[in-house]
């Protein structure tokens, strides 16, 4: 063996970068291989281009936001926590801020500043970075890992697979790691889109495309069984709904898609029915002689008004003073519970992350080393773990990357 162990890391996303820098800091001869022309390509678009670095909640709260195999992450989270990653970023000069929901962002609101900081981290730890290099095959031979890339052959003593998932393929996350891991004998659990927009059956959503709603409550239920309930922000699309509370909801619906799922939006969650009725009556007094379609502007976004009136089975040409009590109650019920039905998830390519991956049963949770092949490690989204929005998935990447880098 050479004086320094040769460590190969496939994938220069957050997991691979942290693994590479940490391994480099331990004096290892580290080569980080990336198929794109730059590091952190998916990181660049996270948080709408602002990069939600992590979450500032106590680390024990992170487990409540992990949807799959949370116990597997115990060593990872406590070995390298949200405080640790922020200390690392701060030590390289990145300034951060905490926003709603304890989400942490760079002070500049630029994900590019996060990536520049990670590049400094790699440089300071003497990581050999190889870009524009697509791995086509890996095999394990005589206790060495032979990596075939662009018809070139590289040989490593140890190998970390940190290739990400199968979502946002334009960023390089095309599921390569699953294929490579499978060839090395690992089981890949079923891949599903996670944190993904939702398609609905109702055609009228097309008329609302681009309409963003803040401070609403969305709920999902099947056969009167509640599945999900959350307050926050969402947006209508040409096919259905998206936005933070919808993306989180998608994680809760995976196991129920065989039955009919009803979705409901409370447009005025701060008002109970009695208070809302009083508010509607006040508006009706003000706009007593107007058509009902012109009398709800103070209460609802303009584009929603025709939908609410239609759903309430009220003639839009009726004047307010002609609206019956029964019609007013139907109007109130639709404002408190605009209902539509789940059709499907959008494709995995549009998901923020991939649910599923290399089975956690085949990885040592304390080291991220394969239980099947000595010297093979995994980090990040390629593993069968995923979490809700809010910086938790990136923290999984850093924490598992750290363990792999420390133990490789």
Automatic annotation (TrEMBL):
Span of domain RsdA/BaiN/AoA(So)-like insert: 192-353
CC cofactor: FAD
Keyword Flavoprotein: yes
Coiled-coil boundaries: none
PANTHER family: OS12G0638800 PROTEIN
All copies of domain RsdA/BaiN/AoA(So)-like Rossmann fold-like, residue ranges: 7-406
Pfam short name (any one): HI0933_like
Annotated protein name in UniProt: NAD(P)/FAD-dependent oxidoreductase
Domain of life, per lineage: Bacteria
Record's keyword terms, sorted: FAD, Flavoprotein
Source organism of the structure: Tissierella pigra
